Amino acid sequence: MSIPQVVLFYKPVGYITSHNWEEKHRSIFELLPKKYHSYHFVGRLDYNTEGLLLLSNSREFVHYMTLPKNQIVRRYEVKLFGRTEIKRISEILQKGVIINNFKYLPIYTKIMSSTKNNHRLLLTMREGKNREIRKIMSHLDLKVAKIKRVSYGKFALTSLKRAQFIHASEKIIEYYMNKINERVGTN
What we know:
The chain is an alpha+beta fold. The chain has 2 domains: 6-69 and 153-186, Alpha-Beta Plaits, CATH 3.30.70.580; 73-149, Alpha-L RNA-binding motif (Alpha-Beta Plaits, 2-Layer Sandwich), CATH 3.30.70. It has helices at 59-66, 86-95, 132-139, 170-186; strands at 6-11, 15-16, 26-27, 40-42, 50-56, 74-81, 97-99, 102-104, 108-114, 118-125, 143-152, 155-156, 165-167. Strands 1, 4, 5, 6, 9, 10, 11, 12 and 13 form a 9-stranded mixed β-sheet that branches. Strands 2-3 form a two-stranded parallel ribbon. Strands 7-8 form a two-stranded antiparallel ribbon.
């Protein structure tokens, strides 16, 4: 099996994760060279979220990375506003949250800084549902000021600046391709 191409891209706020250009929203592909316009994205980041976005020319790789049963870890730095006991929020998140009969998996929290009304957290998650962080924080009466994805599996944002991209390490790509091959071998 050949090694797919994987690109690490720092998606800035103000762009949608879509191949379709819309009149009111700009696509991430406006920021990338044309040769990447046919690549598939691993998950999405909404218009107001920034950070690491993976793109690949392999549907198989993208499918593996996004399939919930594979439990790929995602990490986000989140800035919140709201008067709360942040340790209590952390405990709630670690148990999982139910909103309108919909269960969100546990989110592990590291408190980076916290004052009475401002909080910086590092959230570690194993799923990536649509606007999940925003929905949960709103449910807990907290306002999200900023969300930045800093890692997805073994891939990390590291020193990339907004709108920059680099090719992923072949060693990390091979790690995931071996996982895919193991799964194919057991089916």
